[in-house]
Amino acid sequence: ENLIRQGIKDDLFTVYYQPKVDIASGKLVSMEALVRFEHPQKGIVSPGQFIPLAEQTGQIIEIGEQVLRKACADTKRWVNQGLFSGRVAVNISAKQFELPDLDDRINKILSDVGLSPLHLECEITEGTLMESPENGLQMMTRLRERGIHLALDDFGTGYSSLAYLKRFPLNTLKIDKAFITDLPANTDDAAIASAIIGLAANLNLLTIAEGVETAEQLAFLKEHDCQIIQGFLLDRPLWPDQLENRLKAEQQRQEATKISP
Ligand code: C2E
Ligand code: CA
Ligand code: CA
Predict the structure, then answer these.
(1) Residue 260: its pLDDT value, please?
(2) Inter-residue contact 204 to 171 (CB < 8 Å)
(3) For residue 139, which of 124, 126, 158 has the smallest C-alpha distance?
(4) Which of 15, 28, 60, 233 could connect to 54 by a Cys-Cys bridge, CB 3.0–4.6 Å?
(5) What is the CA(1)–ligand 3 centre distance, in A?
(6) What is the dihedral of CA 154, 159, 163, 169, to 10 degrees?
(7) Is 213 in the pocket of ligand 1 (CB under 6 A)?
(8) pLDDT at 26
(9) What residues of the chain score a pLDDT lower than 70?
């Protein structure tokens, strides 16, 4: 807890970005901001090691705002450079989601940075939403009214009520990597993954598969009409300057296709 407090004060929380790629076009359409704690002695600490504690102590609120601010500032730069026109996805913790003024806080950060809400997506886990679905519904509606997109994260691991799923103003369902890991050999997971994609399609939602590591997994997902993938097969989480190079390479590739006959 003391280390985290120091980290917040000394600005030691940094952000990596993992690309999300459209399967049909192969284009980078979005990226997820993933926090790291860069400790001067301990090195780079993963969120799994500090988020649960930060969640308990409430420090996650401060960390989450720093992440949001950095993700918005980086994205603003890439948009201004003409390198990116999609949305950056930021994870919103349960504690943040409980804040009655979350929408105002996000709006304040967006306007400080000068980024349009049309470049932001919030990832909220199933568990977070189902803690208080009626309040969640209201906050989600307010965020959507501002033009922010919403993804339901870790889908399939919590206890989602399908009645709520229909009412939540979501844009995207993210299939949890637990169901992706053993594709396509595990027939239960294959059935679950394809059912989630079908459900999402019927509710007019996009589906993202996370944790895609193999070409076989990708082939399965493509065949079952999943639209977007994220995972080590295509990209690891990247430092901001690495992501920038990735965006530049992508732009050059597109320009090359434009001029080729
Ligand atoms: P998540 O939201 O489900 O994020 C995906 C995690 O899967 C990331 O771990 C990512 O690095 C990892 N991953 C991506 N592709 C692959 C793959 O192909 N294979 C495998 N095995 N793993 C893959 P990471 O960065 O360690 O983050 C872990 C969790 O910490 C996240 O899970 C999220 O719940 C939380 N987290 C990360 N950043 C933030 C943040 O800024 N705020 C909050 N509240 N939570 C965060
Ligand atoms: Ca996430
Ligand atoms: Ca997950």
Answers:
(1) 65
(2) no
(3) 124
(4) 60
(5) 24
(6) -30
(7) yes
(8) 94
(9) 260-261
Residue 9's φ and ψ, nearest 5 degrees, are -65, -40
Query: Rounded distance, CA 141 to CA 64, Å?
Result: 21
- Rounded distance between C-alpha atoms, residue 120 and residue 84, angstroms: 12
CA of 175 to the centre of ligand 2 (A): 10
Instruction: Give the E-state strand segments of the chain in sequence order.
Output: 13-22, 28-39, 43-45, 87-92, 120-125, 149-155, 172-175, 206-209, 228-229
pLDDT at 160: 73
How confident is the model at residue 70, as a pLDDT? 98
Phi, psi of 256 (to 5 degrees): -65, -40
Nearest atom within ligand 1 for CA of residue 96: 44
Determine which residue's CA is closest to atom 10 belonging to ligand 1: 237
Instruction: Region of 204 please: left (phi>0), alpha (psi -120 to 50) or beta.
Output: left
CA distance 61 to 237: 22
Nearest CA to ligand 1 atom 25: 34
Nearest CA to ligand 1 atom 45: 91
Atom of ligand 1 nearest to the CA of 212: 18
Burial 190-225 (b: 16+ CB within 10 A, else e): bebbbebbeebbeeebbbbbbbbeeeebbebbeebe
Query: What is the residue whose two structure tokens read 């501002």?
Result: 146
Neighbours of 113 (CB within 10 A): 17
- Residues 239-248: pLDDT tens digits? 999 999 999 9
Angle between helices 215-223 and 187-202 (to 10 degrees): 40
